[in-house]
Amino acid sequence: MRQHQETNYGNNELNPAVLHVYRTYFPDPPGGLQEAIRQIALSTAMLGARNTVFTLSPQPRPAVIERPEATVVRSRSWAAPASCDLGGPDAFREFAACARRSDVVHYLFPWPFLDVLHAVSRPRAPAVLTYISDVVRQRWLNAAYGPLMWRTLKDMRFIVANAPSYAATSPVLSHPAIRDKVRVIPLGIEESSYPKQGDERILERLGIASGEPFFLFLGVLRYYKGLPFLIQAASKLKTRIVVAGSGHESGALQQQARQAGADNVVFAGQVSEAEKVSLLQSCLALVLPSHLRSEAYGMVLVEASMFSKPMISCEIGTGTSFVNAHEQTGLVVPPESPAALEQAMRTLLSEHGLAARMGVAARQRYESMFSGPALGRAYLELFREAGMV
What we know:
The chain is an alpha/beta fold. The protein has 2 domains: 2-190 and 371-388, 3-Layer(aba) Sandwich (Rossmann fold); 192-369, Glycogen Phosphorylase B (Rossmann fold, 3-Layer(aba) Sandwich). It contains 14 helices and 16 strands. It has helices at residues 32-45, 89-100, 112-121, 139-155, 164-169, 201-205, 227-234, 250-260, 273-282, 299-306, 320-323, 338-350, 354-370, 372-388, and strands spanning 2-3, 17-21, 50-57, 64-66, 71-79, 86-87, 104-109, 127-131, 158-161, 182-184, 214-218, 240-244, 265-269, 285-288, 311-314, 330-333. Helix 7 packs parallel to helix 8 (250-260).
């Protein structure tokens, strides 16, 4: 494994046609991985890459959508067992046609149907794969899917991990059969893709006074986000904690907050992009209490860094502790520990100037490692190198 090095391309004479492949994409309901693909496509397009996204959709009409970052080609998703969208014969035809027009095929893992697409279509273009996460929860799927997964991984020119820590601790990425193919490219965000102006009405709606310090959780309310531990920690504090996002865990979390007497936990529900910007601009710090490896990276940490905000996250052996450098850009605490979360929040509240200094360091780290230009240069170099091997 080696860290990816940036290169000066001079006149940018080589503009590869790249096909990005994942199970779902905009305008279908968004998620973190779809946003990661959008950022990769947007940042490489700004440097000359010609991007296409092949995806499945329950309602793939129109079948082709032109977006600023890429042309999106959609086939029908016939079923989605265990969040694994499955396509029909048209998916194989459309994928093969897109692959023939591409210089490089870029897969986003995990999605078992992509392994089937690759095995059946056998695209002639070189293929690379961004490895977002191990198969953590669906152990049964991993057992049945393992042989096909390994066939795909061995067929790749390069495999991208998003953080050195994840590459080192993943039993798949550290395996001798593929570890020499692994490259590290951090996921990032092109700042111009975010609204320039926030919507400060969200603060009034939540009852947050101007200048009032508060902590922010931002994301989908999923089982691995560690929010029960954050609510326990909040019950020991008076400072407001805003939970912005929706998901299946919402009702249970609100009930827990009531039972714990954590009246300072404010559930904002799903927020718009402009509302999210205002919350990030106004909060004291972002808290990501995820306690399981399903939180492979934490794009919300990159968002906080972009807005010069310190972070509190948990050490779970993934990319979260790469984005949030302990005692530099924020604080990293043990997982499943309400006491540790409480102490970290008290530290940022009580130590004068600490949150501001960590926020400055977070922004500097964003600019050097997680910005759009950094992301675009690294992935464009990878695509070019794959095409030359």
